[in-house]
Amino acid sequence: MTDLAVPYIYPFTTIAIFWPMDTSAVLDAFNIRDYVSKYVTKKLLDVAVIGIKNALKRINGQTNTIKLQAFKHEDLIEHITQHLAENIKWASNISFRDIHRAKNIDDVFIELDTYISPIKLRLDMKSKAPSIPFREMLSDTDKNIIILGQPGAGKTTSVKRIFLDVLRRNDSNYEVFNFPIIIRLKDLVFEQGYWGLSLFREILGILGIFYTHEGPVGEQMQEKILIHIFKDFIERLDVLIILDGFDEVGDEKAKNEIVRNLRLMTNSLMNSKFILTSRSSDYNVHIDNTTEYEICPLTEHQIEDFVQKWLNNQVKAKDLLEQLRRSPYWDTTMRPLTLAHLCALYERNNSIPDKPKSVYKKVIQLLLEDWNNQRSIHRHSRYAQFEVDRKIDFLSRFGYELTVEYSQSSFNKRTLELIYSFICTDYNLPESESCYVIHEIESHNGLILQTGAETFEFSHKSLLEYLVADFIVKLPVFLKDQRILVKIPNELAIAIAISSNANMTYFELVCNILQYKILDPSFLQPFLTRILIEKPDFEPNILYSITNIYLLNVIAIGITKDIDEIFMPGNNRSANYKKPAPHPSHWEDLHDQLADEEIIDDFDWEEEDIDEEIEEINDGDDMDKQQEVKINLDAYYAECINIIIHVWKTPLCRKSFEQISTYYNLGDIRLTKKSPLYFFSKFGKMVHLKRKSRFYKVSSINVELPDNLVLPYDFVEIFQNRIKEF
Questions:
Q1: Which of these, 116, 555, 133, lies nearest to 302 by C-alpha position?
Q2: Would 173 disulfide with which of 104, 138, 479, 556, CB 3.0-4.6 Å?
Q3: What is the rounded distance in angstroms from the CA atom of residue 33 to the CA atom of residue 176?
Q4: Beta-carbon contacts of residue 550 (< 8 Å; ≥ 6 apart)
Q5: DSSP 3-state assignment of 598?
Q6: Radius of gyration, alpha carbons of the chain
Q7: How far is CA 528 from CA 22, 185, 322, 548, 552, in A?
Q8: Are β-strands 179-184 and 239-244 bridged in parallel, bridged antiparallel, or unpaired?
Q9: 669 vs 535, which has greater pLDDT?
Q10: Considering only 212-221, 375-384, 565-574, 646-655, which range has the smallest mean pLDDT?
Q11: Sequential DSSP letters for 167-178
Q12: How far lies 213's CA from each of 56, 70, 219, in Å?
């Protein structure tokens, strides 16, 4: 071999690197020197060097201008060893801001699945897309591999594992490669004047191969020379080249250069191969001789496996999984990144945050801050310059328009452009930047994902609901359009939870804005259920108990409506049927109804009243009707009543009810059978709440209370001692 000066050699003498305890388990006290000497042999390098010499002969036969800078076998070994040494620790650990300390990848890694074609190429969204385990990709294709995935899907962690598995030699799919080369594309340097085939230069530089031109050489000839050297050297080494983070390359010119390099590389490699990772939305090119895969969302089994491995404690893992399943953000666990953050939060506190709003906010900030921190990425829009809080404001409005105006879980790019055009001026954004902004939202923060050839959707329903709620509570006045509000029960429950005064928001929404529209079959039950889940910071004041009493009155109206439908089946109306009073649209109408009823001053029952009721109940026709009513109630309102009973029994509601006597007089009311509240009464009698103080003052705001309300005796019995005091 020619013995000439080498441009730079790392000053190694003897390399036998043993990693500290946190990574030694990964490769079992892996000795890089032993590995390199075993698989990067003199014979292998001789074959590769012959390839270079052959390339130089062909080239110099035409130009005689290329001079290879000198190297020895030891030089190549040092460069390869250095590369492995620099990357093995990076590949062995998983670390991020919330984590208490770095995790060993072997301790927490789970095998993912991949779709055998990208989601965005699917035309039939109803059929189940075929998938294979991640480890089978190399046996599934003999081409180079493109790994796509949504933000946080596990692309980088998976190629870290591939890098380590090649070194371990414990999988037959990887045994065909002598060693891996890994390049994080965001760190790739494009030197001025050396744009041509920068990726080729980087790979050869990692291996210690350098050459010079003697005399002027045109750009086209330079590239031809580089391709010959690369092909004849790399191909003989049988290496796996891992290129991570195509989406993290900030400059469009640099991206195009990498694509051009890869297209040339696919024609140069047969025994050696490359794997490229990218976020799905950023990869909009086709490269011959490649197969594209996309990482699937986590299955429930994979989630369980991940949690168990992360916590390494069966009891804690079971507890966390139960907490996650009860939470509204279970859907966010379908990605390894957010699941890892939830595990890290649990690890710190032995629980995930009790208030779901804390998790919503944290996950959104995580996605946006991660995107913001990719400072090397050049972004085209003014939106990209927003601070995180301003981005959240914009996305909240965006989510609101998407939810309210379009009311669909999937949408196309045209819909996104229409929404952007409608709201952009409110955020001082140019209308001409719609394509850039939509791409940036989809590509980098992972809140909007492409799910088909022409379809998109929000990645996490719970996060979309949170953003809509965030927009609502930040409005200068509360929304009053009932047609809109009844469409968004979950969003309104979250709005109550994140508002500055949950009691006032709950009261205003239920008693003043929605009123009897709350009975909408698609609204009431999910609204009440979500409030239980969200756990708003309610205070034990009169507004809380009055709102729940008002809800009970409204449900009574709903029950009457159902009974109305049962008792009036066309011409089969009961001869004794009396049409219930009209459904009131406001508590003042309820007040008018109650004013017509007979208000009694005591709680004594007349024996004949009881006998009359028992006689009616024993009537066969009435029994059938009662059964029909029960079946109807079971379908919907019974569950709503159960939720309110649950709330009514809580210490918070008990304490708030203590203020009743300050604002209301309590007595009995006897209801006629035509009353919409009759079916909630005990033999026609209920507790009557008559307002004696018109306003309740909150933070210098006078809140007007309902004038008349009624309460079933079953509910009053919960507070029997208090009632006696009144």
A1: 133
A2: 138
A3: 20
A4: 510, 511, 587, 706, 709
A5: strand
A6: 35
A7: 48, 49, 21, 10, 12
A8: parallel
A9: 535
A10: 565-574
A11: HHT-STTTTT-S
A12: 12, 14, 12
Nearest by Cα to 266 from 158, 142, 126 = 142
For residue 603, give the 3-state DSSP assignment: coil
Given a contact cutoff of 8 angstroms between Cβ atoms, the answer to whether 105 and 160 are in contact is yes
CB 344 within 8 A of CB 313: no
In sequence order, what DSSP letters do the residues of 89-105 get, joined into one string?
Answer: HHHHEE--TT-SSPEEH
Report how far residue 624's alpha carbon sits from residue 565's, in angstroms, rounded to the nearest whole number.
14
* One-letter identity of residue 351: S
Q: Look up residue 659 and give its two tokens.
A: 């203020």
Cross-strand partners of 277:
147
Does residue 690 surpass a pLDDT of 80? yes
Query: pLDDT tens digits for 262-318?
Result: 998 888 788 899 999 998 877 888 999 999 999 998 999 999 999 999 999 999 999
Q: Which residue has the higher pLDDT, 258 or 44?
A: 258
d(CA 187, CA 185): 5
Top pLDDT among 29 and 390 is at 390
Whether the model clears a pTM of 0.85, i.e. scores above it, the answer is: no
- Identify whether the C-beta of residue 269 lies closer than 8 Å to the C-beta of residue 210: no
Tokens at residue 50, please?
A: 């012959």
Q: Are 111 and 306 in contact (CB under 8 A)?
A: no
Q: Which residue has the tokens 């972004």?
A: 379
> How does residue 127 score in pLDDT terms, banded at 50, 70 and 90?
low
Cα distance between residue 22 and residue 99, in whole Å:
15
CA 168 to chain centre: 34
| Residue count (the chain) | 726
Phi-psi region of 121 (alpha: psi -120 to 50; beta: other; left: phi over 0): alpha
CA dist., res. 339 & res. 344, Å (int): 9
Q: Could you give the residue ranges of the DSSP H alpha helices within 17-100?
A: 21-27, 32-39, 42-60, 73-92
- Separation CA 643–CA 621 (nearest Å): 31
Write out the two tokens for 38: 């075993």
Find how far residue 58's CA is from the centre of its chain.
Answer: 55
* Angle 408-409-415 from CA coordinates, rounded to 5°: 60
> In the structure encoding, which two tokens stand for residue 418, read together?
């229409």
Q: Is 129 helix (H, G, I), strand (E, B) or coil?
A: coil
Do residues 137 and 158 make contact, with C-beta atoms less than 8 angstroms apart? Answer: no
CA 570 to CA 719: how far, in whole Å?
Answer: 43
Strand order through the sheet with 239-244: 131-133, 113-115, 290-295, 144-149, 273-279, 239-244, 179-184
The dihedral sign for the CA sequence 435, 437, 440, 441: negative
- For residue 691, the SS3 value is strand
Q: Looking at residue 119, what is its pLDDT?
A: 76
Q: What per-residue confidence (pLDDT) applies to 716?
A: 60
Q: Are 403 and 470 in contact (CB under 8 A)?
A: no
Q: What are phi and psi of 153, to 5 degrees?
A: -75, -15
CB atoms within 10 A of CB 585: 11
Tell me which amino acid residue 294 is.
E
Predicted local confidence at residue 359, as pLDDT: 82
Residue 560: how many other CB atoms lie within 10 Å: 20
CB 107 within 8 A of CB 309: yes
Note the pLDDT tens digit of each residue in 371-382: 555 444 555 677
Whole-number Cα distances in Å, 78 to 15, 38, 86, 158:
8, 14, 12, 27
Which residues face 551 on adjacent strands? none
Cα distance between residue 659 and residue 703, in whole Å? 15
Phi first, then psi: give them for residue 242, nearest 5 degrees: -105, 120
Burial 417-454 (b: 16+ CB within 10 A, else e): ebbbeeebeebebeeebbebbbbbbbbbbbbbbbbbee
